[in-house]
What does this fold into?
Amino acid sequence: MASVAAGLTGPSPRSEALVEVTRRVDRGLEPPDTAERLYQTEMDRIARREAELGFAFVTGGFLSWPDLFRPWIEQTENLDAGPLTRWFQTNTFYRPPRVSGPLKRRPRGIFGTLPPLEPDPTGRPRGWVAPGPWTFARLCEDPGGRGPEKLSRLWADRLAQEAPALRAGGVGSLLLLDPCLVADPPRPREGAGLRKAYQSLAPVLTGPEDGIWTFFGDATPVLPLVSRLPGKLLGVDLTETEPSRLRDFPKGKTLGLGVLDPRTSLPEEIPAIVSTVRTLVRRLAPPRVLLGPAASLDLLTEGAADKKLTVLSRAVEVLSAPSPRPAAPRASRRTPASRRMR
Amino acid sequence: MALPLFPTQEVGSLRKPLWLVEGLRGQSPSRAAKEELRRWARALPAVLQEGDLSGLTQEITASRDPQRLRDQGALFLLRYLEAAGLDLVYDGEARRVEMYEYPIRQMEGFRFLGHVRSFDNKYYLKAASVGPVGLKAPYHVDEFRYVREHAHRPVKVPVTGAYTLADWSWNEHYLKRRPGWRGPKVRRAAQRDLVVALARNALRPTLKALTDAGAELIQVDEPAGGTHPGETDLLVEAFNESTRGLPGRFVMHVCFSDYRSLFPGLLEARRCSQFLLEFANRDTPEHPGFEELRLFAEHNDGREVGVGVLDVHQDRVETAPEVEDRLLRAARILGDPSKVYANPDCGLRTRSLDVAWAKLGALVEGARRARKVLS
It folds into this structure.
């Protein structure tokens, strides 16, 4: 059985206390540093919770980011924020980046957009997420008319600029959130250009939990293409991808499975997760599995998200428990290979 | 109702004045609330000398009757919109907590779980459907009666649509009835169950009560209408089911969506005589934002369009020439100026009353200028 781990794959919901404080800051009833202090406290709390749940890395929940792009817009020359736009098929909105020239890192860098987390006593690395190149290319506004291939390359280069600072800050897992790869996939003729565009990320995405996380779409039609993109991990949204259709997976990559649906507050059932993951592991034989929310849990309340994360943690425990010793073979007609699959 | 060319209208809610917010919380009015009231007393002297509002500046204290406070809030915002010069008015939804929470609280089968973020530091309280949808009692009827009694202009009642109420809720009850792997098909079937239950059991009885009370123009707000491009049929089914067999005129508001994904399915909302759509948010000199209006002509549909000409997410106040330009562009694209209504992109609740006032001033003046150009 492949080793199984879990981790957060995007921003967490804000607590009711943070909702209240940020509202009061917006209304001018509290100074901004009140929110800053609370971000720090709450992110440390989330990191402790991630550790308690046994996750592979801690993120702190990225609570202060207004949306996935904004911190990058603030830390990149020649990017500014576009009009309020719906975030895929959700009731959440973001401001797309508007490109006005070469993308250059500002001195503070992306790592500086979040407070440092209390060190994890067990030495868990920090997890980080960033918009993936194809998603950037499809969602940004570019009055310059560069095509998606060029924009993907620009963004891949921009991401690569941040890698040294992220690694120096203890980031051990870097997930590129790339929903457009499955929700608005590249056309076949764009495939070669896309692979080239992502190349600058190959030296960056080298850890077992570094890679591309797709969501909000069925991964099966684009697997042949995305399998060839850099990264040691590839994440698939199992709320959109029918598990029985997932028949091929790139050899040697960590299998990322988005098993928590952030669009419903109904907690998933542990047996359903366990049975689906076991089936996929038997079929795809990945060296490692990372389970997580299909998309970021900030579409939920903190309470509903925590219930789901508890389910996730329990599912990992069940999947990681030693299998009961199989009964002594009697007159079995199974082949040795099928026994190994069991 | 006789309206001029390019009739002006609000789309939904306005920000509540501080004296109303604090009063309803049982707080003594703050200095800021008193100052805000004094400012509006100077800006709208005639309004604040009228009957119910005449003693407001002296009267605001923490011990006041909440019902009277709500009446005064509704009257104040009604007069605010009238004084701004709008042709179609309501009460700025002064009595409603907001457009989702208020109707859901009038229903059975829902439980509020907490706040979720809409964008930046804006949140809404979100409920889960935990049982069959029911209606405690039709809502908005008393507020409509109050507005009708006091309004000096034609009235349009905004009501949140069934599709949006379903989309903004978590669907637990109807999803739980379908065990097993809950993939896209299962989720969609469960969502249809929730949408139809809301339309039949909550929206239609409410719209019926409103039309029975004399409402002639009802705006069904479906800001979530474009969220799921594959669900236009559900949006339309919700609208048709909610309005089925009722007298009166119904219009629909959709915003912040890719309108192309709604066509041509949206046009199956046969009882809908006008679509109010956000456009200003997406209209920049580099990217003209009104091109999607061509969809109506492309599908040979001659219904009215309420064109969003004020961006509700920016404090920058549009100029009257900008509004005029947007209305004339919309009229050119639709090929008939009589089909164009002028409105903000969405409710102006996102802006302060001062900014909203300035924006509505530009709206009214811009419409006047556009009329003059075509006269």
Remarks:
- The domain at 3-322+334-341 of chain A is CATH 3.20.20.210 (TIM Barrel).
- The longest helix of chain A spans residues 32-52.
- The longest strand of chain A covers residues 97-105.
